[in-house]
Structure formats: C-alpha cells, structure tokens
Amino acid sequence: MESTIVRGACPHDCPDTCALRITVQDGRAVKVQGDPDHPPTHGALCTKVSRYPERTYHPERVLQPLRRVGPKGSGRFEPVSWDAALGEIARRLAAIAARDPEAIVPYSYAGTMGLLQGESMAARFFHRLGASLLDRTICSSAGGDALVATYGGKVGMHLEHYADAKLILIWGSNSIASNLHFWTFAQQAKRAGAKLVCIDPRRTETAEKCHQHLALLPGTDGALALGLMHELIVNDWLDHDYIERHTVGWPALREKALAWSPERAAAVCGLTADEVRGLARDYATTRPAAIRLNYGMQRVHGGGNAARLIAILPCLTGAWRQRGGGLLLSASGWFKAFRNDAALQRPDLLAGRTPRTINMSTIGDDLLRESSPAFGPKIEALVVYNSNPVAVAPESRKVVAGFAREDLFTVVLEHFLTDTADHADIVLPATTQLEHLDVHTSYGHTWAMLNRPAVAPLGQAKPNTQIFRELAARMGFTEPCFADDDETLARMAFAAEVDFAALQAQGWVKLPLPEQPFAEGGFPTPTGRCQIDAPGLGVPDFVPNHESVQSSPELARRYPLAMISPPARHFLNSTFVNVKSLRDIEAEPIVEVHADDARPRGIADGQVVRVFNDRGEYRCKARISERARPGVVNGLGIWWRKLGLDGTNVNELTHQKLTDIGRAPAFYDCLVEIGAVAGP
Ligand SMILES: Nc1nc2c(c(=O)[nH]1)N[C@H]1C(S)=C(S)[C@@H](COP(=O)(O)OP(=O)(O)OC[C@H]3O[C@@H](n4cnc5c(=O)[nH]c(N)nc54)[C@H](O)[C@@H]3O)O[C@H]1N2
Ligand SMILES: Nc1nc2c(c(=O)[nH]1)N[C@H]1C(S)=C(S)[C@@H](COP(=O)(O)OP(=O)(O)OC[C@H]3O[C@@H](n4cnc5c(=O)[nH]c(N)nc54)[C@H](O)[C@@H]3O)O[C@H]1N2
Ligand SMILES: [Mo]
In which residue ranges of the chain is pLDDT below 50? Predict the structure, then answer.
C-alpha cells in the first residue's frame, strides 16, 4: 500500500502548536505524529492529538447539512442539501439584517487557531453584513490585557531558553497537561540542576514533579507577588539600575508592597510566612530565574492585577538580563508585526459603521436581554463556529435558556453534534485540520506554521472559509475579496519575513526576533519601559475574589468551598470529550475533594455528589484526593453536558461576573457546597 507523509500543524487552543506528520494511505489518514525536526515539537505529541484519526473518522461526525425537526435543544435533525441549508440561512439573515444587522451575532473562539479557518472569510462576511462585533474574552484577556498594559505586548521569553534557567516558577499552569512541550524544556533545566516550583491551588501532575509546590488559595496570586516584592525591598534584592532605566512607576508600587509583610501575604494566600520568604529568597538569589505564567491564575476577579504584579517581578530583579531569565505568559504578541490581519479580516468592509460589541463571556445574560438603548437590538440570530458555548460559557442555566429561545435563529458550523449544535436550527458540516489548508501562529513559541490538507473533505464537509464564501455569494456580496481561495488567503496572512515558500518547504518558519529581548529594556510600550504605572490603570494592587470569605462572608457561610474547574488532561476544553478512547481515560466527570472536607459531609470516594450554589446544581463523582487542598475543590472540565451524569457540567455553577481587567470570566472564583446524594 502506498503511503505518503503530509506536513501539518496542530490547530488546537494550546500554547504548543505542534508540527504534525500525517501518514496517508489510500486517501485515508492513518497516523498523526509529532514532527521530529520542529524544535518545540521534537517528535512528541500529546495523547489527545495522537488520536486524531479516531476523532476525524468518528462515526458520529456530522457529514451533511442538518435542519432542526424537534423542539429547540432536542438535537433532532433531518438532513438537507447544501443548497437548501444555505438558501434558508441567507433568507433568514437577510430578513433580520434588513431591520438591523446588529441583531445578528457571530460567536466563535479557538476550536481551531488557524488564521484562515478562524477569522478570515468569516470576519469579512460579518464586517460586510454589519453584524455585532464579538469581544473574544473567554480565555485569556485578563492576563493578556494586563501584559499589554505592563510590557506593551503579549511577549516574553523564548520557549527554548527555559532549558538554561536555574529556577523556574511554574505559576498557574499544569504544564504536563496543557503545555507539554514547555515541560520538556523545564525537565532539561531540572536535569541541569534547576529548581522547579509550582504555584497552584491543585496538586497537579506537574506540581508532583516539581521540587516544591505552593498550594495557594485561588485568586490570591496578587497577594503572593506583593509579599515577594516586600522581601525584595527589605532585603535589598532589587536591581536598582534596571528599575531606574527600564521601568516607570516603581516608587508608588514600592509603597504598597511595603504593607505586604510575608505574614500578611501568607494569611491571604493560605500559605506560611516561611513559604513566602523562601520563595522570595530563591527568586532573588538564583540566576537565571524564569517564570512560566499561565492563564490558570487569571480566571478570577483580580486576575488582571495579579498578572501585572507577577510580570513586574523580573523587572525588579533584572532577571531579564540573563538568557534563561524573565517570564512568558503568551508569545502571541511576537507575531503581531508579522501578521496581516487587516488583509485577512477586512474591517474596511464595515464602511464607516461601528456595530455594538457583544462580550462572549456574558452570552447567557445577553441572549436573554430585550432591545434597549443601552444594549441595542435583541439578539435574533447567532452564527457559531469553532466554539461550543453551551458547554464552555459560564452560568449554563442562562446560556441554555438563551440558546433554547424559539425565536432565536441559530446556525452552528461543527464536526459533531455538540451541546451547542443540539440547539441549532441549521448545522453545517465543517472540515477538520486533516481536510483543510491553514496557517498558524502560536502563543507558546515563536514559529509560524503551515498546515496542508492531508485528505479530501469527508462526506459533504466544507472548510469554514468555503462556507462563508458561499454564504456571501447567497447574500449577494459581490466584493472581489469574497472570491479569494484558501491559498490566496494563506499567502496574504503573513508579512514578507515569514516566507511562504519556506513555509511550504519546511512547514514552519522561526520569527526573526532578538535573542534576549529585554536584557536592556526595550519593551514595546510607548516609552520602551515596563509600565509598573500603566496609563488608565495606575499601579496594580491585590484585588480579592468576587466570591470569598473576605469579600462575600454571607455567601461563604452557605457555600464554604472554593471551586476551580481546570482542564482535564485528556480533553481540550470540550473538544475530545466524545472521543471514546480519551473519555475512557477520564472515565467520568469528577470533583476532587480533600479528606478533611469530605469527612464532615459524609462523602465517600467514588460516590455521586451534588455540587451546588445559588446558580445551579451539578452531579458528578467525588474523588477524595490529595490533589485538592482543604477548602478548595477541583471540578475538572469541560464535559459535554449530555455526556455527564445528569445532563449538566461544571459551568452550571460558574458566574458571569467579569475580571478587573480584560472583561473576562472568573471561572475559578466560585463558591460552592457539596452534598452526598442519597440512594443508588
Ligand atoms: N490537555 C489540555 N491542554 C490544554 C487545555 C485543555 O483543556 N486540556 N486548554 C488549553 C487552553 S484553552 C488554554 S487557555 C491553555 C492554558 O490553559 P490553562 O487553563 O491555564 O491550563 P492549565 O495550565 O492546565 O491550568 C491552569 C492551572 O491553574 C491552576 N489554577 C486555578 N486557579 C488558580 C489560581 O487562582 N492561581 C494559580 N496560581 N493557579 C490556579 C489550576 O489548578 C490548573 O492547574 O492550555 C491549553 N491546553
Ligand atoms: N468552567 C470552565 N469553563 C471554561 C474553562 C475552564 O477552565 N473552566 N476554560 C475556558 C477557556 S480557557 C476556553 S479557551 C474556552 C474554550 O471554549 P471553546 O473555544 O468553545 O472550545 P471547545 O470547547 O474546545 O470547542 C471548540 C469547538 O470547535 C469545533 N471546531 C474545531 N475545529 C473546527 C473547524 O475547523 N471548524 C468548525 N466549524 N468547528 C471547529 C470543535 O469541534 C469544538 O466543538 O472555554 C472556557 N470555559
Ligand atoms: Mo483557553
């Protein structure tokens, strides 16, 4: 049998953006492996993506357009032709647009991170239509905006430089689960004698493999950073020259930090004062010292301020001066200078209109709003692609009620009948990464990537780009940009420095970037300095959780447990939950509970429990485990509601209150109570 290897790129919302080698036999992808030649990937893939053929050829793939036949949310559909489906969508959208195009809302996130199958033809379509804009905040905008305020961009250390560090703080990141190819570099550093410290409320598989684990309470990272600053000041562990020349605003923050003794910080964080002191000493006196910050720490009310405080640390000690020193939260800003987003997305098609913006994180509330001068028109139509909001958006009860509105027209572009697709009026079959062309940036490394289609589209599936191209034609949009094919889009996605011929030949191109970007300051802020005092935000401070003993004592009496809901290792958000071999590993939706919290509630290991608060109730299995610290329970995400124990998931409990910076959800700032469920 003849077999060929096709070069691809992993499309998933993960910092690693691996280079793939896909083995194709007789037109069928039979194996997906990591490319050994791509430095970050070094031939290794996570378990999930190595199961790609299983997901792609899954018997439940949606391979033809479907039209709803049952009530909203029933998941009952009949197959229809592409012609009928596109015709109906164009008719419905045109009728709404004739009244007010802002009543139409696109809803998308990072189901694929590809620049083409993400926001290229889709953005053109919605811009031309004049639909509402979408604020894509659900994941990273608290920390992301914080980094932009502080450094001037989402920029930081090179991934490979972590191998040279002598101390790595792995802060708010379960790297083994969600940033595996960083972990490889951390392991290299460890073998060369580096100390690894994990800062995470949960005793994750990563925490277990670090030398030290600081299990702070969720949402207290800002207090810890201030406690560390206190120690840097009183022990004079500051790099005065770096602060003087490359930062602005330190005196005001210095004043605040002096009020955060290790005792005070420890009391807020649920740590000991010695743990705070020891961490400060390690951080100040070990060279090079690196921080791998990740988005897990910014899904709380004060997530933005905390990310700012932590990002300031390497500027106080001058850690940026050494290779192997500094911080990385996201590398995505490095691509900014090399991307042609305006060419791909064509905001000029708005032609002077300024539609309102809907925040994706409050879709539950917004779908239930009537027209008003403040809100604008009631949402009449939703077009969902690359996202599964019914499962992933906070406060499910409201999200589900919104999606169940009989007067809402919903179109979902999907691979599978997800919880969201079940609520569609029309489902359109989309291709997977193995079936379409795309180009990629990364938020964990600095290589631009190309994904070639390895196989022909399955069934009647089409790439998102093609679906929006055909919809545009149906709507009578005649601008020539709606005729651009995918290769044309791919060629215009990057600036000349990312040579398309090189991308085609090798599959990736390393961005031309300085080796040690901030060794001598040079932050991409207007002043070139790290903005400790940032325009419009001032100096950062500790911001407590929306829901905690301190900020909401009455609520905490009724719901005394803090719940975080980090990713399960073998799922990617809600993707892969329906892939049997992976679901078999995760087995069932679980909540991890410490024995000290389980005992007084009469909860036994493996028992079904109800986790509840005023917003809702979610049933899952309790796992009594040292992974949970006392007072904090871990409800691992993000199950498909319909594959859970009672048709719900953990987002039944989360709320729509936003973060201090970035308008993002505070998924990990959530009080609950747990009770045993009687009976079998
Ligand atoms: N396997 C797998 N990989 C993934 C994902 C997935 O779902 N599964 N998700 C992807 C996505 S969408 C993203 S955004 C990225 C990054 O995604 P993140 O969500 O950052 O992923 P993790 O690093 O797994 O999880 C964050 C860690 O933060 C911890 N944490 C929770 N609250 C706090 C807190 O208040 N302070 C601190 N210090 N830590 C806290 C959690 O216990 C968890 O271990 O990963 C991506 N990679
Ligand atoms: N409680 C709680 N909730 C969370 C989080 C948490 O930690 N806890 N994490 C949050 C985070 S960090 C994020 S990023 C969001 C993620 O939320 P989403 O971005 O919605 O991610 P997924 O759940 O993976 O859903 C992506 C969907 O896109 C589809 N898809 C993939 N590729 C394509 C394509 O090419 N075309 C089309 N049409 N569809 C495609 C997949 O089949 C999948 O159903 O969830 C958030 N929700
Ligand atoms: Mo995310």
Answer: 680
